[in-house]
Amino acid sequence: MSGNNSTTMEMEMKSLYEKKIEYPQIPQMRPVGVFENMYQLIMAYASYYQHITGAVLVTLLILGVILVLNLIAVISTKTPVAFSSITHDYTDVKYYSKFDLLLKDVDHWCLLGGNDDCTCDDPTMPLPGYNHHNWTKAWKKNREIARKDHGHVDVVFLGDQAIEAWNGRLSGIQLKSLKQVSKVFNDKFNNKNETELQGIALGIAGDTIANLYWRLMHGEMPEQLDPSVWWITIGGNDLAFGQCSEEVVILGILRIAELILDRRPSATIVINSLLPSRTQLKTMKKRRIKLDLWSSIQAINDQLKKFCEKNNVKYKFFDSTEIFFTEKLKSVDELKEEMKKKGKKSLTNKDTPSMKIELITNDGKLTPKGHIAWLNVINSELQRILTDELYIRWYEEGIMNDIDDLFDDSFTFTDDAQP
Question: Cα separation of 386 and 393, whole Å?
Fold first, then answer.
């Protein structure tokens, strides 16, 4: 009997241990709307003070609604920004400064001022772009292209999604919608039977200046890759998504240019203008107001252009802006003068012409037709740059003097032959 009880107890204990414990289910919390929250608060107040009449409740409810509507209006109101908040002149930065571009003198890190209300990466420090799961895949593809033996290469294009699209992909993924874009690029820069220009495109969608910096330090600038021209298109993501200040974007782009020139001192650096965008972004964190990017883009492009003009031995600025607008744009100085006459302190989208929607969207995304139009103009500009460089090299090597002498001898008149 005792043995039976012992066996039974062991079985019960075993069943207790093996029994799945059912924990009480925690109800899922749903978000409570502002109006619902206010209504419940008023009803709770009314239940506590029974003598409050229905009319008073209705009055409180109406006042609450008005308060919320005003709050929403303040949050969603577009606040135009000043035309340019660049406090320093970066056009005098010398291209031989040997990495002397630091952020210590930058007035503010974030686009709306201050240093905390943005997610801006330090563009002077290399940073891998693990912002999406295909980034490593895209970088490895770029590294493979850069290391490949291309023979003579005239130009290397560096940048973000705008450049990656020329390989027919975004974030490392081939897209059918970009097949025609890739074909046009290869016809112009990778077809030895039809053109003398040879080029490769190294871009990754979503990349910032710091990401491009890291890529150049890790495989996308191998020793054997030595083109005549390095073409840079970067900074748009820093401005739009990182919400970096104009000064930070400018310093970052110049740091990339400086790095390339330090490694390839005989090269020409072309800085492409930031592509146009009329996006009104909502700023992050504490400041929930809308932000116009157009004036910031113009201010950045203006500084980069002036920098290249002052250092035109090694730097060229390529302004692609007018390709995408319906009419000629006014210069920054002209716009500032116009603002002064009208007594305006800021610019909005109404102050600029319309963009060609068949080429580019309002938030700066190029259509396939936009890519092709841009590539056509780039091709012509590169032909001009390389021709100028050829003449300069001939002069330096004395070849042009021989050609001049040849022409002088060919067209020398004797006394009898002169009219």
Answer: 10
